[in-house]
């Protein structure tokens, strides 16, 4: 937890962070208190802690991950990490170069072409959960774990490309709900081409319901060329 929060904090101090909608967020420095002891959340010793009752809101539901549950103080780093609702509302990509709140399309690119480690990637779905306090720093970009909401997903970029291609070819003509459930509207299958649909369905069938499948479906984009072809076929 500590290594993740340190990376996110350092990244956030590098400058204003843009949300996918183009809003700039200025993350300030960590607040310092004067309490000595171990941090309730990360367990690290500090002499600049802040009162736990001021930092941990009644709505906080992650008490299960607290490293020192009996402590009445929270360290400056953890206080900072829980001070910005934006760190809960948006996905996070933290690298030593800076922090980003990536859009789904940017997350898609990161899964295909991850940055040089170390980095942290969390993907917010509800925007209501603290993910960065549960995420791990990635040190190996050939195979790494990211958080999709609270579920860790193992990502191998070489395996991502083929599965994502198939999902996105289907997404050119079908809805994400259809691809997720396998319950397709017959008229759309006819329009798409039964043989072509069968071939793609066969490729994704064994992945349906896996965490990686859910993640790639979440970030899948309509490919412009595919959409144009779809329009032409109509
Ligand atoms: Zn702490």
What is the chain-wise order of helices and strands? HEEEEHEHHEEHEEEHHHHHH
Per DSSP, what share of the residues sits in E-state strands of 2 or more residues?
A: 15-25%
Biggest beta-sheet profile: 5 strands, mixed
> Strands of the biggest beta sheet: in what spatial order?
7-6-8-9-10
Query: How many domain units?
Result: 3
Counting helices, strands and paired strands, the structural category is alpha+beta
Describe the structure.
- The chain has 234 residues and is of the alpha+beta class.
- It folds into three domains: 28-83, no CATH class; 88-155, no CATH class; 158-229, no CATH class.
- The chain is 40% helix and 16% strand.
- It has eleven helices and ten strands.
- It has helices spanning 2-12, 52-55, 76-81, 86-89, 104-112, 157-171, 176-181, 186-192, 194-205, 211-219, 224-233; strands spanning 17-18, 24-25, 35-38, 45-51, 73-74, 92-95, 98-100, 120-123, 144-148, 151-155.
- A hairpin with a 6-residue loop joins strand 3 and strand 4.
- It starts with a helix and ends with a helix.
- Residues 226-234 have low confidence and may be disordered.
- Zinc ion binds next to helix 3.
Outline of the structure:
The chain is an alpha+beta fold and 234 residues long. The protein has three domains: 56 residues, no CATH class; 68 residues, no CATH class; 72 residues, no CATH class.
């Amino acid at each position: 937890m500590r290594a993740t929060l340190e990376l996110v904090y350092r990244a956030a101090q590098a400058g204003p962070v843009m949300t996918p909608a183009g809003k700039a967020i200025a993350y300030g420095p960590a607040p310092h208190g004067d309490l000595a002891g171990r941090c309730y959340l990360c367990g690290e010793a500090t002499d600049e802690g802040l009162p736990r009752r001021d930092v941990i809101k009644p709505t906080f539901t992650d008490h299960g991950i607290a490293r020192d549950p009996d402590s009445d103080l929270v360290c400056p780093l953890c206080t900072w990490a829980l001070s910005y609702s934006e760190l809960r509302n948006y996905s996070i990509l933290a690298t030593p170069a800076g922090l980003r709140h990536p859009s789904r399309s940017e997350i898609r690119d990161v899964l295909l072409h991850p940055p040089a480690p170390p980095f942290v990637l969390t993907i917010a779905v509800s925007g209501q959960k603290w993910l960065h306090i549960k995420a791990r720093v990635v040190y190996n970009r050939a195979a790494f774990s990211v958080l999709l909401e609270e579920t860790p997903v193992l990502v191998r970029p070489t395996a991502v490309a083929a599965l994502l291609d198939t999902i996105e070819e289907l997404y050119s003509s079908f809805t994400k709900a259809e691809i997720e459930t396998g319950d397709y509207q017959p008229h759309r299958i006819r329009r798409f081409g039964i043989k072509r649909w069968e071939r793609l369905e066969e490729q994704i069938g064994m992945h349906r319901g896996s965490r990686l499948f859910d993640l790639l479906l979440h970030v899948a984009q309509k490919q412009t060329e595919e959409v144009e072809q779809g329009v032409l076929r109509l």
